[in-house]
Amino acid sequence: MRGGGKVAARAKSPSPPPAPTTIPTTSWAPADRSVPEIIGSLQEDYYNLCMEKSRKINSFVWHLLQEVDEEIEKGLEGITLNIPGNSRLMPVERITGEDFWILSRILKKNPYINYYGLDVRYNLMSDVGAYYAARLLQKQHKLIYLNLMFNDIGPEGGELIAKALHKNTTLKYLRMTGNKIENKGGMFFAAMLQINSSLEKLDLGDCDLGMQSVIAFATVLTQNQTIKGIYLNRPILYGEQEESTVHLGHMLKENHCLVALHVCKHNMKNCGIKQLCDALYLNRSLRYLDVSCNKITRDGMVCLADVLKSNTTLEVIDLSFNRIEDVGAKYLSETLASHNRSLKALSVVNNNIKGEGLVALSQSMKTNPILSNVYIWGNKFDEATCVAYSDLIQTGRLKPDNTDVEPFVVDGHVYLAEVSNGLKKHYYWRPTYGEACSQSSNAGSILVPVGPDL
Predict the structure, then answer these.
(1) What's the order of all strands across the beta sheet hosting 145-147?
(2) How far is CA 54 from the centre of its chain?
(3) Of 4-8, 19-23, 133-137, which range is least confident?
(4) What torsion, rounded to 10 degrees, do the Cα atoms 304, 306, 307, 309 define?
(5) SS3 readout for 331-366
(6) For the CA atoms of 395, 398, 399, 404, what is the dihedral angle to 10 degrees?
(7) pTM of the predicted model, to two decimals?
(8) Fewer Cβ in 10 A, N or C end of the chain?
């Protein structure tokens, strides 16, 4: 493996720092002890391995391993090791590729623990860490969920991980979001999906995929029958032909397994959404369609409204950050009011919709008993809009957790304020307090569950 040799060499080249004589003084480790109190097996193994390899103990990892050991002592199964580099609730010392090498050694060394997942998002692993992540996937056969988002992994690291999944039969959920594996790395992942038969959810959003790799994924998914959710957000596409949507549309006609398709920031216009809608007349598996952050206008809503009259499987549609305006909202409202009885959630956030279109959507909820979640913030509210959604909430037709607005009254006039609810509010970041995977903030993955909320 050409990329593997280069990465392995990089992993061994740095000279390790001298071993600390005492555990680093933090809020989690007592300052008056030269030898830390060992609580459980993972923490003990981590300490011993750091001493053996002359590695500095990462106090953040030390604290989190202590929590995991306490869970193990309680007899909990399905352990997920969360080491997020973007945690706002405690001081963070981000892990590097060499730190991940120590972690991978520990995880491979403890086969008696029932591991479920490993979350190392927003760290500094680079291709060095990707090399050890690939080796972990080859050795650790209890790992089901792996989150590597935003770790400075490049095309070579992507190649290593993709090739490691050729023989891995246990990993079901992988998130590579934000690692610039580019077109080269994307092609290796597409080739992997021709061989791997266990992966169910793959996130390659913001990975700088090119047109070639997007087309490759669309081609492979015509045959792959295990992938249920795929994120292909923000590829680097040139030209105005929307060739990628042609291939994605063909894939939807052939694929009868895919449940969730995320194609944000594809520079998709009305021609592109028409390609997808034409396929949805034949598709009977897709339940979650995410076409947010594109250039779809009211003309594209003619196609979508028409397909919703006959499609009975779509449950969640994300149209956020397009430009459907009043006319597009009214097309959808008419279909939802009189024909469709399968759609559960609709997001039209930031679509330049005014009062007429927003009121029409609210009216459709009065006759449609299935539509439960509506997100409208970022449009142009008038008093009629505020009164309409206030009435829906006060009568109980629209639950407060199922929308992103909340009514309030000033001087006898009703206004709407924004609340932090949505289909995927915490896709990139973690809140300063509360649950990162709350049902109200990530309703899309609750309504259409495809494994854990990565």
Answers:
(1) 79-82, 115-119, 145-147, 173-175, 201-203, 229-231, 260-262, 288-290, 316-318, 345-347, 373-375
(2) 36
(3) 19-23
(4) 130
(5) HHHHHHHHCCCCCCEEECCCCCCCHHHHHHHHHHHH
(6) -130
(7) 0.88
(8) N
